[in-house]
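User: Quick one: structure for sequence A, then sequence B.

Assistant: Sequence A:
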Amino acid sequence: MRFNIAYRVLSLLLLFPALHFGQIREQPMQEDQLNQLVFHLDKLENDQFEIDFYPAITQLDSVYLIFPKVVPGTYSISNFGRFVQELQITDASGNDLKFKKIDYNKWVIYNARSLYKIHYKVDDSFDDPIADQDIFRPGGTSFSDSLFLLNLFGVAGYLDGKKDTPYRLTVHKPTFLYGSTALENISRSATTDIFTAENYFNLHDKPILYAIADTASTMVFNTKVEVASYSQSSVLNASEILETSASVLMAIGNYLGGNLPAERYVILSIAENDADALSGYGALEHHNSTVLYMPEFEKEVLLQEIRDIVAHEFLHIVTPLSLHSEYIHGFDFYNPEMSSHLWFFEGITEYTSHLVQVRYGLQSPLEFLGVMKSKMDDAELYNLDIPMTVMSRNVLDIFKSEYSNVYDKGALIGMALDLKLRILSDGKKGLVDLMSQLSAEFGSDTFFEDDQLFRLIEKHTDPSIREFLARYVEGAEPLPFEELLAEAGVLYIEETTQNQIGFGQLPISFDPDLDKLYIYDNTDISPMSKALGLEVEDRLLSLNGEDLTIDNAADLFGDFYSSVKEGDKLKMEVLRLDKKGKWKKKKLKTKVFSFPVVVRNTLLIDNDLTAQQQRVYNGWLNL
């Protein structure tokens, strides 16, 4: 998806001082083989900052200025050019050049031989008012006095034909902010940082987090792992994130044969006390770094989420950042073509991120099977008649609502393929061996043809694997869970009915104004929750007399489920809007009772395995 650094910029700019509003600023001299960006973070106003772009000299009469429509790893249309404001384009004497806006992301600049400077302001995406164009927060931008998240594709563009020309980035910043990034660094001072990138792809691939310094680092195998953390209410710190990340990176290194495929890896973490953080959290992968965006929640829950997410994002170094097709290798930011193999790039990665944890002791086999069960449940919420290859090719438009299924059905395809390979080899070889063989054939500097992936997998495995891919990936047949899992000594029960106690599916979000959790949907709540009287928009105050907060909710509900029995008293206190629109306390109560529940996709470990089942099971989970 992004290229490794092949060379460093050899020539440094000649700089000369220029007077700006009583301060000395460096005014770049234009060069024919260097794009120069200057960010003025120290001039933040109305959640905007100014950018000066001095593009490499062009000999063309007209050129296009382009901002990304789509960026790798997001699989959705972002239109980052819409955040550009007050665009000015001038020659070296400060005279305006004529230009015309083509669409959200593209401008044509006339008399381009005289082009010297492109000046503009940029808005951040976190405050984007267009709800239906909401940008995934880890792939967005945020600007405030205490925090700048700079996914550089959200603030910087390129001239068509100059995308492969090196970039030099100068950042003028407040003295109390420190910039963490995987970018090459020329110099740092209290007020100015200077970075380089070999081309636009390399620039876009290395985000920067400016915040009050909270950093930590360690070595994991051959890799220096660095963490920079911003936590709005100090719920998390860099050392804690590093500790939980290092444990799973150690597991990944063991899984990959005793090493990690990076000399340096930078984790940029943002945790905010924000309602949108509960629904928009996650991460975006890069070659040598990742951006994590998290809600400030109960710490142990957060750290487990971070461990899972870091495992997934780091494993993207294997695919698609290294092992990828032509559509990723030569990614077109303005008019991209989607691969048929998101199941491979995202699904295999998601499955492996959990597999490494059970194989190296960070999860128990039952916990791992619980994760797979939840993915089976969630996959059933999507359209099961759409082949994954068809969905992947059309993910930007026709099937964009089906995209998240790559993390569920895609991961289950990964598990099924892994089991199939273990069964064929009597437990000796699995998915890790296939990925190693493919990576040896196609490194980060080359690519496979998108329509040839299945043939390549067959070449390294068995004709029956090609049939498997045709039926379950190119086709939409239900995955044969019962058959495959049985060979590994795991019982699969598609559906059963059980009596249970519980609240049912209780969709909860967070109201930062009242500092309370609330119910945003009661479609699938249980009969017990209905008897209790829970309603949509109820703000939760207490559970059985204990104050209920965002920090202790997981513990309180966990304690309830671990100790409750039928006939116990159940009490909750909530805030509810009255007819005058005022919040009033309301006490809810009922008795705990069980009710019949249809349970899908039960997974149980058989206690009486044959020798062959034991070999497959042990090979699969490294036991």
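Sequence B:
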Amino acid sequence: MKFYPRRSALPLLILWLAFSLRLYHLDFQSIWWDEGHSIFVAAQPIPQIPTLPAMDVHPPAYFILLHLWLALTGQSEFALRFLSVVFSLLTVALLYRFAHTISYSRSHPCTPAPPLPCSVASLLAALSPLYVAYAQEVRSYAMITFLALASTFTLWHILFSDRGPGTGDRRWFIAAYIILTAACLYTHYFTLFLLLFHNLAWLIWVLSQNRAARLITWIISQASILLLFVPQLFLALRQITSYSNPNLIPPSLSDFILRSWQAYTVGLTLDPQPAAWGMAAIAIIFILIISFQLIQNLPQPSNPPTFQPSNLPTLLFLLGWFLIPLTACFLILQRQPSFEPRYLILVTPALFLILGSGVGGQGSSVKCQVSGFTHHAPRTTLHASRLTLFAIFLFALHSYYTNETYFKDDSAGVADWLAVETTADDLVYVDVPHPFHYYAARGNIVAPTRYLFVDIHTAADTLTREAAGRNRLFWITWRGSDTDPRGVIPFLAQKYGQRLGQRDFRGYHVEWFSLPQAGAGFSLPADLPPVNAAFGDVLRLDGAAFGGYPPASETTPITHPAWATLHFTLLRDTDVDYKVSLRLRGEDGRLVAQVDKDLLNDRHFRTSAWPLTDPALNGAINVYTLPLAADTPPGSYRLEVVVYNAQPPFPSEGVSGVESEDGAAAVLGHITIIP
């Protein structure tokens, strides 16, 4: 293969562009939960990383590499994220090389590969909002994208060794494939879906010719990958098979396709309407590319015969790389739902290669003949397709940099605010472990700050012990947390103290409370006074405690709540998720206060997932706070519980009791509000 110096300028310019885009605002946004998790794991001793409890569904390669990276670069946001920048740049460069090899295999053997397919594919990767976003995160997605691309590139060389330049000895490619694919498995378990596609490609290759020799090559490669993965294999099997979250719902096919397509094209940081237009335009271009390439590979008579190698096998290879892992993943999700498009980012290089190879044609037209008719795709159409793709990606990338709606959670903002607002006499609880350990370690927050794992049965004792002698309690909740979905911490804080204020940050909600005087404790009764209120043959309310406070006085204008602690038991299996509404009504039936919550057990499962045979998880304590307006008139108020189906259109399906407007009700008793 000849070297063309002028042609090296374009890939270098694309790499510089990619590098600049990834460095821009690299440390502008806060470290968020996922990144905090990576930092926490990577900070542990290397021998302990694979078996840490925090490694619930993660293989260790990225975290070990990050551990070594931290030792070299330090822990600033810029340094932490720069590792992902490196892998993202390697992806852009290798995409150019892959596209170049594909283009060379379709060119006349005496002419160089056309530069446009190589440039379009790598330039789309450079501009991709998805690639830029994960180049600016302390996560493994940039790394797995590069490794998956490198692994699949070597596989392409093995299967199509007669199509590209500099193929060399196939044994070197087989060795590289084994090492790279094993590295993929050590980086992300969704590599299994990529391996499914790889092995289908291997199978077709084996069946095409020289079956015995090719079969041996296939078996050796897969056995070697398995052998390299043996140290992680049994731990991986336990991690993958034990993961379960009944609260997750499998995505519908349309949701899966649309969300994945949006992530892989315009990214998830673009508003819905422009995102829809961009997704549609790229889908049309994608379909046209596939159609043109399929038509071009139909038999075309020529006189005299000309050299025109078929690119159909490579096209089908790229389509399989993109579609087969997505299809397999969707099917698995119906049984074990846990999906974000980033988990399958390893299929995206195939998309960029298809788009690049399809709109990078040379000459004045793309010509093909079908049934005696000659069809032309004018060069202007190719230019228009390229410009459309670049314009869409640039617009979406601008949104990634500027649209605050989709910025990462403002963890640094919360930490800076706490450093100003709190004192050493306060107590700060956070309902997630990450990333506040990262910001608290900087020493700006003087109040004791720690993650609180909320156990409803021990929360009162924990508060009594740790809040003693403190003035205020700050409770920080993350939008993605399910640490305290029953709200036991604010329940106890308002029951025994006073709610002083609240503030919202991007991704976080902060409430703070005054604490009871020294010697006063918190209490959540373990044994509730018995109640026998049945809701059909599905649920029974078998324990309840409740009380109320007078409205705030003029000197303490804090709204005091009414409260209730309720225990429910499931009487039979159900596929309905029920909600409970606690309501306070005046004697005239006027609604004074109301709060609605999902009915959850101690694993935070909704009723459809409660195990009937497990007494610890079949019964559940839930707590409710009913804030009362300061001008609530004194008098006696009726406290009632309404149970209803959380999913319309049948709110009271499966339950019965005193009829309410939207469910079945039971009267708990009365609360007297005094002047």
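The CA atoms of residues 130 and 267 lie 5 Å apart. The chain has three domains: 5-406, 411-514, 530-673.

User: Thanks, that's what I needed.
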